C-alpha cells in the first residue's frame, strides 16, 4: 500500500486513475459547491430565518397582531422618531406593525408552500405521464398545457376569487390549481430525456413495473429540475397572493398579509410612505431569497447544465 | 429630522409635477379647478344617483323651490309662491323673465313637461323615490301650474327644493336624456360649455342668472376633472393644477391642514353608518343568534363608537343613537334607547342568550374598509367571530334584498332630504331591505308618513324610533363628515348637506 498523502515525495508518481479515486467524494464536492455559492448561501440563510420567524411567530411577536388601539394609530417606526414600544410603528387601526409583519410571514409562506405543492403534484403527474408514455397521453397533456398558458393567471384568479369571495383557502386553492403549467412543461421535457437512458431500459429489461420505473428510475433523476421549479412557483404564488390581497380579493382582514398591509397603507403613501415601504421591502426580500435559493440549487445540483 | 426630509422630497416631487403640467388654475385666469373622485354616469340629474351628480344638478338647473342650507327656510326659486289647494294638489306662481341657457323662455309648459316626463315610470328616472310621489302637472295659465300628487305626501316641498329640477320642454323633447347628458341646458347659475363623459366638465358663469335665493355666481369658470386616486388629487393640489378637492379622508385632511397652505373645512353630512342585523331571521344562518334581542343589544354594547368617531372619522362626525339623522324632521334623539360601550355587559348578554363562547357570523361591508375592520375588531373582542366580506355596493344591496346577510355595516345618506321618512321609513316598512320586519314599527311609520299634521308625525316617528332602538334591530353607529380642502385664496363656506355650491365660492 502506498500512502500518498503521508509521503509527498511519492505523490507525483501516483497513477491518475488512483488520484481520481482518492480525490474528494461527490458529497464533499457538493458541499464545497454549496458553500462556495454565495447566492445560495444568502438565499438559504434568509429563508431559514423567515421560516423560523413564521413558525415561532407567537413567541417572537411583541404584541397581538389583532389588538387594535384607535388612540395609537399610525405611530411612526423607531427610525422615523417612534418609540421602542412599537419598533416598526402601528397601522391605521393602531395595531403593531412588526407583529403584523411577523404573522404575515406565516400567511405568505403557507400560501407559497401549499400552492406550490398542489400545483407541483398536478404538474409533475401530468408532465411525467406525458413525457414517459408519449403518444395520445402527450397530445392531451400538451393541449391542456396550451389551454392553461393561454389564460392570464391574474385575470382568472381575480375572476374566481371575485365569484367565490376572498379567503385564505380560496386563494391557496385557486393558485394551486393555476400554477401547474411550468411544472408540466419542465417535467415533460426532462422525462423525455431520461426515458431514453440505459438504466431505464435496464430496469425495463429486468421486468420492473411502470410505477416502479417512474418512481425509482425517472423521478430521482428529474428531481433537481423539480426543485428549481418549486422555488420559482413558490415565489410566484407569494407575489400573486400579495397582488390579490392588495386588490382586496385575497386574504381578508383582519388576517395580516403583506399585500393587504401595502394596500391599507396606500392611501397615506404621500404622508407616511413607510406604511407601504416596510411590507413591500419584506416581500421583496422573501421573494429574492427564494429565487436566489432556486437559482443556487440549480447551479449546485446540475453544474453541467450551466454555461 | 428624517420626517422633514421626507416632506421636502414630497415638495420636490410636487414641484417637478408642477413643471410638467400647464398651470391653468387660479385666481389670475378666474378658473376654479376642482376634482371629482367618482365618475359621473350622466350629467342629466334624473339619470344619476351619485353625489357628484347632485353637485352638477344644483349648479346647472334650478328647482321651483330652494331650501336655504343655513336657515332651512324654503324660498321660491323658479316659483314665486306656492300654496296647497288640497291635500294632494300644489299650485305654483312662476317667476317671469327667466330664460334657459339656450335662450328658451321658462314658463308653465316647461314645468308641465318636466313633471309629466319624470313622474312617468316608463321614463326610467334612476331614483324613483325622488319623483314617484307626483302624479302629473297641469297648466293653469302661462305662469301658473298645479302639481297633482298620487297621495298625501308631506315631504313634497322638501323634494321639490331638492332633486326635482326644471328642464326646457322643447330642447328636452328633442335631445332626450342622452342629449341632455352631453349638452346640458338649464336655468342655473352655471352653464355647461364642455362635457367629456365621465372625465371632464367645464362650466361658465351664467351672466343672466335670475334673482335667485342661490345668490349670484362670481367665479367665471369652473373646471371639473375626475381623479379617482386621493394621492393624485393631493399631488395636483400641491402642484397648483387643482384649487379644490373634497371628500378627502380624515387622515390626509389632517396632514394637509398642518401644512398651512390650504384651508381645510369640515362639515357633517346626513350620511349615517349603522350595523344591520338579520332580526327577522331571513338568512340561512342556523341557529340565527340575531333573532334574539339580547344578542342584538350585545352588539350595540360591544362597539366603542366614540373611539371610532374620535380617531377614524374625526371632524364633525357624531355618535348616532337613532335610525335616522338627528336634523331630519321627526328624528328625535330623546325617544331613542341608547347603548353605552360596555364589553362586559355585551358578554353577559351573549351568555344569557346562550352564547357564552360567542358565535361565528359573516360580516359584510361595502365602503370604509377601515371603519368596518375597527367594528369587526370590537365584535371579536366580545366573542363574536366575524368572517369579513367586502363587496361592491350593488352586490351587497342585492344580497340584502334577498335577505341573505346576517350582519352588515351599511350607510345611508337620505339623498340629503331633511325628513326622517327618507331613512327610517325606507328601511322599516317591510320593504325588501327591511331586516326587522316588525309590525309595530310598520304601523307607526305608516301613520307618520301619511299624516299632514306635523305634531302627529313627530309623535309617531318618535314611537317608531323608540320601538326600533329598544328592540335593537340596528346598531346605529355614527354620522359621516366631508372634508373640503382648498387653496387659501378661495373663499368658501361648506354646508352640511354635502353639496359643493360653486355659486357661493369667491376669490379672496
UniProtKB/TrEMBL annotation, chain A:
**Gene Ontology cellular component terms for the protein in this record:** plasma membrane
Localization:
Cell membrane
* One GO term of the biological process aspect: transmembrane transport
Which segments cross the bilayer?
A: 40-61, 107-133, 153-180, 226-251, 271-290
A Pfam family annotated for this chain is OppC_N
Which CDD domains does the entry link to?
TM_PBP2 (cd06261)
Q: What keywords appear on the UniProt entry?
A: Cell membrane, Membrane, Transmembrane, Transmembrane helix, Transport
The membrane topology noted for this protein in its Swiss-Prot or TrEMBL record is: Multi-pass membrane protein
Q: Which residues form a coiled coil?
A: none
Where it mainly occurs, coarsely classed, is membrane
Q: Which residues form the ABC transmembrane type-1 domain?
A: 105-294
Which PANTHER family does this chain map to? OLIGOPEPTIDE TRANSPORT SYSTEM PERMEASE PROTEIN APPC, PEPTIDE ABC TRANSPORTER PERMEASE PROTEIN
> What does the sequence similarity comment in the record state about its family?
Belongs to the binding-protein-dependent transport system permease family.
**Identification of the protein by name:** ABC transporter permease
Q: Record the organism.
A: Rhodalgimonas zhirmunskyi
UniProtKB/TrEMBL annotation, chain B:
Give its localization: Periplasm
Q: What would be one Pfam family of this protein?
A: SBP_bac_5
Identify the residues that the record assigns to the Solute-binding protein family domain, covering every copy.
73-429
Q: Which residues form the signal peptide?
A: 1-25
Q: Which GO terms describe its cellular component?
A: ATP-binding cassette (ABC) transporter complex; outer membrane-bounded periplasmic space
Does the record carry Transport as a key word?
Answer: yes
Keyword annotations for this protein, in alphabetical order, are: Signal, Transport
| Gene Ontology biological process terms in this record | peptide transport
Keyword check for Transport: yes
Where's it mainly located?
Answer: periplasm
GO MF assignments: peptide transmembrane transporter activity
Q: Tell me the protein family, please.
A: Belongs to the bacterial solute-binding protein 5 family.
The name of this protein is ABC transporter substrate-binding protein
Q: Which organism is it from?
A: Rhodalgimonas zhirmunskyi
Amino acid at each position: 500500500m502506498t500512502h500518498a498523502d503521508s509521503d509527498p515525495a511519492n505523490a507525483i508518481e501516483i497513477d491518475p486513475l488512483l488520484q481520481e479515486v482518492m480525490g474528494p467524494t461527490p458529497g464533499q464536492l457538493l458541499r464545497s459547491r454549496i458553500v462556495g455559492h454565495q447566492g445560495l448561501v444568502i438565499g438559504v440563510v434568509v429563508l431559514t430565518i423567515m421560516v423560523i420567524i413564521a413558525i415561532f411567530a407567537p413567541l417572537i411577536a411583541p404584541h397581538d397582531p389583532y389588538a387594535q388601539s384607535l388612540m395609537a394609530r399610525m405611530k411612526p417606526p423607531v427610525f422615523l422618531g417612534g418609540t421602542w414600544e412599537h419598533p416598526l410603528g402601528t397601522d391605521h387601526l393602531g395595531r403593531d406593525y412588526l407583529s403584523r409583519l411577523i404573522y404575515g410571514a406565516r400567511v405568505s409562506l403557507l400560501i407559497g408552500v401549499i400552492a406550490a405543492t398542489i400545483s407541483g403534484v398536478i404538474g409533475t403527474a401530468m408532465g411525467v405521464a406525458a413525457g414517459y408514455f408519449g403518444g395520445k397521453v402527450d397530445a392531451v397533456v400538451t393541449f391542456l398545457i396550451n389551454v392553461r398558458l393561454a389564460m392570464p393567471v391574474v385575470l382568472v384568479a381575480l375572476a374566481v376569487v371575485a365569484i367565490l369571495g376572498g379567503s385564505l383557502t380560496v386563494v391557496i386553492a385557486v393558485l394551486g390549481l393555476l400554477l401547474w403549467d411550468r411544472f408540466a412543461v419542465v417535467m415533460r421535457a426532462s422525462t423525455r430525456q431520461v426515458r431514453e437512458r440505459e438504466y431505464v431500459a435496464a430496469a425495463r429489461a429486468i421486468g420492473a413495473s411502470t410505477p416502479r420505473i417512474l418512481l425509482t428510475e425517472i423521478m430521482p433523476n428529474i428531481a433537481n429540475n423539480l426543485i428549481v421549479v418549486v422555488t420559482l412557483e413558490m415565489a410566484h404564488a407569494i407575489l400573486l397572493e400579495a397582488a390579490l390581497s392588495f386588490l382586496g380579493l385575497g386574504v381578508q382582514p383582519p388576517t395580516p398579509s403583506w399585500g393587504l398591509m401595502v394596500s391599507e397603507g396606500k392611501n397615506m403613501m404621500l404622508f407616511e410612505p413607510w406604511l407601504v415601504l416596510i411590507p413591500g421591502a419584506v416581500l421583496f426580500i422573501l421573494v429574492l431569497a427564494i429565487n436566489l435559493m432556486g437559482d443556487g440549487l440549480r447551479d449546485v445540483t446540475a453544474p453541467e447544465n450551466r454555461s | 429630522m428624517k420626517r422633514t426630509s421626507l416632506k421636502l422630497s414630497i415638495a420636490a416631487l410636487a414641484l417637478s409635477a408642477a413643471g410638467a403640467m400647464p398651470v391653468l388654475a387660479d385666481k389670475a385666469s378666474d378658473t376654479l379647478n376642482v376634482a371629482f373622485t367618482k365618475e359621473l354616469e350622466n350629467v342629466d340629474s334624473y339619470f344619476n344617483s351619485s353625489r357628484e351628480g347632485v353637485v352638477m344638478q344644483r349648479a346647472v338647473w334650478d328647482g321651483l323651490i330652494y331650501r336655504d342650507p343655513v336657515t332651512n327656510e324654503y324660498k321660491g326659486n323658479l316659483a314665486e309662491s306656492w300654496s296647497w289647494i288640497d291635500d294632494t294638489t300644489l299650485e305654483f306662481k312662476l317667476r317671469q323673465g327667466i330664460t334657459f341657457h339656450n335662450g328658451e323662455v321658462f314658463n308653465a309648459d316647461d314645468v308641465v313637461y318636466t313633471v309629466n316626463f319624470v313622474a312617468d315610470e316608463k321614463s326610467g328616472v334612476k331614483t324613483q323615490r325622488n319623483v314617484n310621489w307626483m302624479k302629473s302637472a297641469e297648466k293653469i295659465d302661462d305662469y301658473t301650474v298645479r302639481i297633482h300628487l298620487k297621495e298625501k305626501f308631506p315631504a313634497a316641498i322638501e323634494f321639490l327644493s331638492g332633486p326635482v329640477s326644471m328642464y326646457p320642454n322643447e330642447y328636452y323633447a328633442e335631445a332626450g336624456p342622452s342629449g341632455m347628458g352631453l349638452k346640458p341646458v338649464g336655468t342655473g347659475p352655471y352653464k355647461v360649455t364642455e362635457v367629456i363623459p365621465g372625465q371632464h366638465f367645464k362650466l361658465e358663469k351664467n351672466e343672466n342668472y335670475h334673482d335667485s335665493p342661490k345668490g349670484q355666481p362670481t367665479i367665471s369658470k369652473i373646471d371639473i376633472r375626475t381623479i379617482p386616486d386621493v394621492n393624485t388629487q393631493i399631488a395636483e393640489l400641491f402642484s397648483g393644477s387643482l384649487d379644490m378637492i373634497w371628500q378627502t379622508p380624515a387622515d390626509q385632511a389632517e396632514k394637509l391642514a398642518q401644512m398651512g397652505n390650504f384651508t381645510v373645512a369640515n362639515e357633517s353630512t346626513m350620511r349615517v353608518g349603522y350595523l344591520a342585523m338579520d332580526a327577522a331571521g331571513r338568512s340561512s344562518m342556523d341557529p340565527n343568534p340575531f333573532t334574539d334581542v339580547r344578542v342584538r343589544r350585545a352588539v350595540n354594547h360591544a362597539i366603542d363608537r366614540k373611539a371610532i368617531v374620535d380617531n377614524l372619522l374625526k371632524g364633525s362626525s357624531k355618535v348616532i343613537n337613532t335610525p335616522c339623522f338627528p336634523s331630519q324632521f321627526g328624528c328625535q334623539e330623546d325617544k331613542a334607547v341608547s347603548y353605552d360601550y360596555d364589553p362586559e355587559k355585551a358578554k353577559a348578554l351573549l351568555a344569557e342568550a346562550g352564547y357564552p363562547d360567542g358565535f361565528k357570523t359573516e360580516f359584510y361591508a361595502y365602503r370604509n374598509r377601515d371603519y368596518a375592520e375597527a367594528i369587526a375588531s370590537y365584535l371579536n373582542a366580545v366573542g363574536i367571530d366575524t368572517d369579513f366580506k367586502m363587496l361592491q355596493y350593488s352586490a351587497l344591496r342585492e344580497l340584502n334584498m334577498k335577505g341573505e346577510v346576517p350582519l352588515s355595516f351599511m350607510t345611508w345618506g337620505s339623498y340629503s332630504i331633511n325628513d326622517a321618512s327618507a331613512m327610517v321609513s325606507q328601511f322599516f316598512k317591510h320593504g325588501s331591505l327591511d331586516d326587522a320586519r316588525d309590525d309595530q314599527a310598520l304601523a307607526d311609520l305608516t301613520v307618520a308618513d301619511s299624516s299632514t299634521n306635523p305634531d302627529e308625525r313627530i309623535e309617531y316617528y318618535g314611537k317608531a324610533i323608540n320601538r326600533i332602538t329598544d328592540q335593537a334591530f340596528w346598531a346605529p353607529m355614527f354620522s359621516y363628515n366631508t372634508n373640503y380642502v382648498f387653496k387659501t385664496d378661495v373663499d368658501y363656506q361648506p354646508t352640511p348637506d354635502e353639496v359643493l355650491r360653486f355659486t357661493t365660492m369667491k376669490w379672496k
